[in-house]
Amino acid sequence: MTRDTRGLRRALLHLVLAVVAALYLSPLVYMVSTSFKTREGAGSTDPQWIPDPFTTDAYREILGSADSPILTWFVNSLIAATGHAALVLVTAAPAAYALARLRFRGRNTIFTVVVATLFVPPVVLLIPTFLIVNELAWVDSLPAVIVPAAAGAFGVFFLRQFFLTLPGELEEAAELDGCNRWQIFTSVALPLARPALVTLFLLSFLTNWNDFLWPIYVLLSPESLTLPAGLGNFQGANNIRYDLLMAGAVIASLPVIALYLVAQRWVIEGISRSGLKG
Amino acid sequence: MSLLTRQKSPSGAAEPAAPAGAARRMRRWTPYAFLAPYLTLFAVFMVLPIGFGFWTSLHEWDINLPAKPFVGPENYTDLFDPASVDGGRFWTAMRATAIFTLFSVPLLIVLPLLVALLMNGRFRGRNLYRAVYFAPYVLGVAVVGFLWRFLLDGNIGLVNHYLGLDVQWTTDEPPVWIALVGVTVWWTLGLNAVIFLAGLQDIPRELHEAAMVDGASAWRRFLAVTLPGLRPVTVFVVNATILASANMFGQSYLITAGAPADRTKTAIYLIAETGLRHFDMGTASAMSFILAAFLMAASALVFGAFRDRSRR
């Protein structure tokens, strides 16, 4: 009796979750489908889930267009996101390690000040960061989208939580072996922290790849844009070509979807965990 | 980076014969060397901008003009005068931000919590569902914005087609809000759901079991065990969601472009446009500090509200 009702409830739960999941993904399916339509097909009032005729014209047109060098944007985005994520790791990891494992004067003050900036609404940074980037002559170049955001406290905060949980014995053993702090950090702490480092790299990469507001204002010339900022230009045209737009959207989604498929668990667990502790 | 490598070589070289005093001095400076690269970034791109932004807001500041006269609080008083051009624009934008936040935040709390509760059992495919609901969030706002601009198109959009409607989702005033809120829920629901789910899984099973032994109904257990157990996560999610909603930019920029008549142009959209398109950086900075004051007040309210309840 109870087993029957439980089975029924379980089936119902699956039905609800599956239907909602299908609905949830359908916009993405339609995006991909539209990117393989002709110009007329994409503008048709009858929804067509399987393109007929099926064509790669939109991709060919968007990749061959001179005023929207989408391959350049793609490479720019790749450089920016990789560079940003690497910079976050290289700066945040030693800082987080020091704040978690070393004793020194001013540690609590530094940590408090750094963490306090997590509560500063980022909007107040927008205009002055632009002015500073302008002073550095970085406007319209990739450092503008790589460097400033690496000052955020999240990476330090996130890695510090991880370093705090490491057992002290391994470090003590390394110290007895005559390792200095830097050697202990690179050969003991960093390898143990690999999961946290990978997660932070992925989150930083995704955030940077998807960033929109900052690059559309700080990058100006067509050849220095990142992919989302470049696509933003398409919007300006009066006659929106949805086939091109969807092809561009698919190209912009590919790397993050690929990363997500490969590292889905790390991404989700990293985000949900950082949420809990934030 | 260079600081770190510099740190490494002398200590490595001087290792065996180093006098005790030198070693101790090295140890004293080591933590600061570890911190130096990050703190440099932190100083230039976090501390400096906060101060510099406020300084800018006290000036008539155009990046292209050599003269940047000090005007004191004038940018602020101007914004608080609804009759001024900037003031009028600013409060229209603040209104747009407020409407969007008020309608999106409750949905972005309740729906993700429901999804998390549904997925909190152990059953086949749970991780698959979790991955599906989270998937839209890994796409950037550019992709999401363009995709929905297409689906919400008044003439050829799928939304009108399947709902049998003839609504201009991107240009008419009540529908634009439904569109902006709906798209945002679709985009970020999974984020809050996985955070709630992690919170649910941190609630000790024994608490539920004990309540069950006491004969508590499912609803009673939800109220007495689940909700209190989720309090810390909820404070975080509510706060983060308010901040995210109040910073909504891309959806407006890409889907409505502020239409109709700038009524969906959010505060951050106006700030970016004023400061980074029209280069009126003094006014834009003043706007950003007023918006920040509202956001910090909202955070304080959230913390206050949740603290009061736990005391009772």
TrEMBL record, chain A:
Membrane topology value: Multi-pass membrane protein
What UniProt keywords are attached to this protein's entry? Cell membrane, Membrane, Transmembrane, Transmembrane helix, Transport
Origin superkingdom: Bacteria
Pfam families, per the entry: BPD_transp_1 (PF00528)
The protein's matches in InterPro entries, at most eight in alphabetical order, are given as:
MetI-like, MetI-like_sf
ABC transmembrane type-1 domain location is 74-263
Q: Does the keyword Transmembrane apply?
A: yes
**Which is one Gene Ontology cellular component term of this protein?**
plasma membrane
Question: Where primarily located?
Answer: membrane
Where does this one sit in the cell? Answer: Cell membrane
Q: Which parts pass through the membrane?
A: 12-32, 73-98, 110-133, 145-163, 184-206, 244-263
GO BP field: transmembrane transport
* Protein family membership: Belongs to the binding-protein-dependent transport system permease family.
UniProt cross-references to PANTHER family, sorted A to Z: ABC TRANSPORTER PERMEASE PROTEIN MG189-RELATED, ABC TRANSPORTER PERMEASE PROTEIN MG189-RELATED-RELATED
Q: Any idea what this protein is called?
A: Sugar ABC transporter permease
* Organism of provenance: Planobispora longispora
UniProtKB/TrEMBL annotation, chain B:
Q: Does the keyword Plastid apply?
A: no
Membrane topology of the entry:
Multi-pass membrane protein
User: Where is this protein found?
Assistant: Cell membrane
Please give the superkingdom of this protein's source.
Answer: Bacteria
Ranges that cross the membrane: 32-55, 98-119, 131-151, 176-200, 221-244, 286-306
Family stated for the protein in its record: Belongs to the binding-protein-dependent transport system permease family.
Q: What is this protein called?
A: Glycerol-3-phosphate ABC transporter permease
Q: Which organism is it from?
A: Planobispora longispora
